[in-house]
UniProtKB/TrEMBL annotation:
This is SGNH hydrolase-type esterase domain-containing protein. Pfam families: Lipase_GDSL_2. Residues 126-224 form the SGNH hydrolase-type esterase domain. It comes from the Bacteria. InterPro entries: SGNH_hydro, SGNH_hydro_sf. The lineage of its organism: Bacteria, Bacillati, Actinomycetota, Actinomycetes, Micrococcales. It comes from Frondihabitans australicus.
């Protein structure tokens, strides 16, 4: 078998790659809108907790938290609030702190960073930590990294001001690799992955300069070239994500 290498002059230059990426992202908007329509259909049809909301874990001085997010914060895919990423994170944090925990939730399946930035209240009074679990609708609606970054900064500053505390911490989570959740057109997969990466990079950039904000990547479920998604369940996703969020508050992280 003969392997032919690409001559150096035929390889795309970095500017050419950037133009190609920009063109692909622009042409992919119709595909993303189709994906968003399918997403809305799925979130309406899927399972959500049916039991009473959990919002408190006993302790001597419960750590007060706020969770804000889209479909995962709503408990997508599980039937009990005790199995959600919110509750799993709170349980780990309560054990780590030895204080217990209490929390409030702002969750809508189609919540975007723009919608969140336009809210007049977050229920953040007294919150020592706030977790932001957003991004899936923004990816599918083609939110630009620049808008995402500006809106994220607005949200963080407003939550910190509303908390009334001197130094409340805000954690913005990486966006889940939503193209892994179901079979998807290869072109759409590439576009979605690029948009996820761009918004995550924007979150990390904002966290680099905004006091009190930290960025935490979404936990991986890859093992080499294999996907843990072959054993995937919504419960395992909520568990892994909750553990990752809690770990971000541990000393040294």
């Amino acid at each position: 078998m003969v392997t032919m290498s690409t001559p150096p002059e035929a390889r795309p230059t970095p500017p050419a790659r950037r133009r190609l990426t920009a063109a692909l992202l622009t042409l992919g908007r119709p595909l993303l809108l189709i994906s968003f329509a399918l997403y809305q259909l799925e979130v309406r049809r899927n399972l959500y907790p049916r039991d009473a909301l959990v919002s408190h874990i006993d302790g001597v001085d419960p750590l007060r938290m706020l969770f804000v997010g889209d479909v995962a914060a709503s408990g997508h895919g599980v039937l009990s609030h005790g199995l959600t990423v919110v509750t799993r994170a709170a349980e780990h944090i309560a054990v780590d702190s030895g204080r217990g925990a209490e929390w409030s939730i702002v969750a809508e399946p189609d919540l975007t960073m723009k919608k969140l930035a336009h809210r007049t209240s977050y229920g953040a009074q007294g919150a020592e930590v706030a977790f932001l679990l957003l991004g899936i609708p923004d990816v599918l609606l083609s939110t630009s990294p620049e808008r995402w970054a500006a809106q994220l900064e607005t949200v963080v500053r407003r939550i910190q001001a509303e908390s009334g505390l001197r130094a409340p911490r805000v954690v913005v989570s990486g966006i889940p690799p939503l193209s892994d959740f179901r079979p998807i057109n290869p072109t759409a997969r590439r576009i979605i992955n690029q948009r996820v990466d761009r918004l995550n990079a924007a979150s990390a950039d904002v966290a680099d300069h905004l006091p009190g904000l930290s960025y935490v990547p979404f936990p991986t479920w890859r093992i080499g070239d294999m996907f843990i998604k072959e054993m995937f369940s919504w419960k395992t996703m909520h568990d892994a994500w909750g553990e990752t969020l809690a770990a971000s508050l541990r000393p040294g992280t």
